Amino acid sequence: MTDFDINSLSSYREHNRLEAKKAKGGFPGSFWETYSAFANTDGGIILLGVKEDADGSLHSEAGIDVAKLRKDFWNMVNNRQKISANIITERMVKEESFEGNPILVVSVPRADRSAKPVFVGQDPKTGTYRRNHEGDYHCSLDEISLMFRDASAVTQDAKVLENMDYTVFCPETVKGYRNFFRSRHSNHLWNNEDDEIFLRKIGAISIGSDGLYHPTAAGLLMFGYEYEITREFPNYFLDYQENRSVGKTRWTDRIVSTSGEWSGNVFDFVIETLARMQRGLKTPFVLKGIKRIDDTPIHKLLREAITNACVHADFYGRQGLVVQKSINGYKLSNPGNVRISISEAIDGGISDPRNGVMLKMFSLIDFGERAGSGLNEVCTVWEKVYNTPVYLEETHKNGVDRTILTLSTGGNEQDVNAMLELYGDENIEYVDVSDTKPTNDRPETDQKDKETEQTDQKPTRNRPETDQKDRETEQIDQKPTRNRPETDQKDRETEQTDQKTDQMNRIIKLLRQRPSISRSELARDLNLHESSIKRRLESLMKANLIKRVGPDNGGHWEVID
Description:
alpha+beta
């Protein structure tokens, strides 16, 4: 409570960061409950020699021996029979004057997680307190357990699960992750390793005391099957809700880890959910050289937000991780509190993830920041593009800690001009064209240039230009269109359309991310009819840009680099 002013004390009232204690009869025993509560929450100030009247106003007590109070305090705070930890320094204890009477002001900081829980007496189960607006309350066993887990110098997801082997991993998830890694690090030596060595290098498996490889908690969460994950994390649950009706259990789209229709692990949830979160965002026509950049600052922001929710989640905690999308924005809620203060989290520069190994895995595929600037960047970008603030809050209800990030649009549309300023690349060029206006953004290059460009995002050749009537007919009735004949350079540049180029590129992007994606899922994600998706896939295969491996059911797509 850095804004405390003793000269304004008469205007204060007790709240979750300020507590008054009468001390006329000596040092109050209830002081230590409040000390524990402030230390285990967000810190606060305890006033000794101050009473609270019935109307809530604060007044000093006369005849208080402040020197004795101060001596008693230091004797007891260093007594481990009285309190588990001394987190106070000399400058945090001050003698002040209020209404002409001396009082003692003790500023209790938020305890470092390594010191938590701070508890009264010898038993943390009975002596651990936290603070809410109603005052000090006894912590539940779940809250105490979380504090002990967070106190470890090693993040909780580094735990080696020796009762499992890595057959608990979903092979398709591992393959999908490796495809992501390969697309971002095409020449990396790890691409040549087998799955066992690769998984060890990223921290998904580790050698146990028996000398054999076992999953780490991070590996299980990222790549495991849901029914295997719940063996270690009984309360594990992931939930994506889109356009939920208020007061009703109805959604236009929903993904839950318990459905049994997919792996149920964190990595697949992030990929599937992120595609839905980003659906419908404005994508300005931005070029870097001859390549279109579809990954806007808002796309990156949402990737950062969901990654942050995962790496800071307490997957042992109750109520699971919930992501909600509505016409008014997004809300991401994860179990567990923030391990640093809210202000430190928003200011950036400090990183203390609960799941450090998981953060490493996401960072290797360019998801998540390692420098502690991720949330700060989220706030900056969102506020500039939507002109509304970001809200980060902690809740402590019924013994359950949750962290909630709210990204509200405030009813505003994306400010494209503001977004363009956030690309941060002088080589970026904005082309002001409508969605249906033909563009020449993909001129033919020599073979070497094409191979370089295709390493990052392979371009597609376009079908011939149709007139407006043909396009409207295809969009409404989804009638087949003419196949794409090979044309010379001039014809190709004339026939390209931004709309179809964008669709082709987005299909390739989705196939890279989710090789097992079905035509119906592609149609849903791109808001196209399934017959249109079929024709575009056939065109891409004919152009030797993608290929189908295996049968329609059980096979997967490969993007040809």
